[in-house]
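Q&A FORM
Asked by: J.P.
Topic: structure of Pimeloyl-CoA dehydrogenase small subunit

PROVIDED:
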Amino acid sequence: MNFQHTEDRRMLADTLNRFISEQYGFDMRDRIARSAQGFSSELWGRFAELGIIGALFDEADGGFGGGGFDISVVFESLGRGLVVEPFLDTLIVGRAIAKSGNEAQKALAGELIDGSRIVALAHGEPDSHYELARVTTRAQHNGDTWQLNGAKAVVQHGEHAAVFLVSARTGGEDDAQEGLTLFLVPRDTAGVNVRGYRKIDGGRAAEVTFDNVKLGDHALLGATGEGFATLEYAIGFGVLALCSEAIGAMDVAKEYTLEYLRTRKQFGVPIGSFQALQHRMADMLLEIEQARSSVINAAAALGAERKVRERALSAAKYSVGRIGALVAEECIQLHGGIGMTWELPLAHYAKRLVMIDHQLGDEDHHLERFIALGAD
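REPLIED BY: S.T.
REPLY: Here is the structure written out as tokens.
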């Protein structure tokens, strides 16, 4: 199998890396991440103008990429810059709409690609423990309307999303795959309440509650009670995106650490000449390449049948979770006390690597899922 990127993908990566290097330096990123909005609307528009959002979607949906390796290339570059703009939820929600939306709903894809509409996935709940099917938010059909009640946790960019993709239970037990239904809920619908907060790794998220929210059938995404397959499919794209982002962040953390070992002197020589530190660095480099291989495998399997696809994604998320934490710890320790300071970019890469493990399922969750999928 040829793992070399096509010329188009290399050009995309070069363009994005250059833009981030020139326009999204660490000081700029830090200001954006700590701002009241948590991302930059101006830069989000410029990412759209460059075609970066479009690269995440198929031509049929108005994009010009959409393959596993297209997504991987984009998010690896975003990881290198610790970009906080709402790429992840745009990808997940957009893919769900592309898979199960009607013609009117699919028209929203164009607004996602041109950056004019912000969307957010409102799926995780306080007690879901990463289990995709565990949903207690309820939707009841009363006459010609649906009545939605429940709460969603850690909704990325929830304060500024115009539309939420909400999972709700219309039947079955709280952890059953059957009976899950997806709704597209406008942010300004009566009964939708949003409480925003800052995230530890930069940017903002929100708790979103739905109090007797009334929706028409036009809000349904796909068939009633059959939303699990769409949700799993769309979140799979998000898992690949997070894994690729982690690879980019690991590479930068590695580069910072190598540079520090070459320049920091002890006893009159660079500390990188000490054999013990060389061994630790070599072990870390091998681990990063193992993580990279797992992400390449997941990207290649994104178009495969369900079990192959989901096992590859869980294997990559497990590897990235374990190795990301290792890289964060080793890089900080090899820097010594300075590695923990807010002013040093490395500390922010370490935080992001740790937090990626907790998005869309941590390493323990995906190890169990990988095993369970193999036993089916």
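FOLLOW-UP: The longest strand covers residues 145-156.
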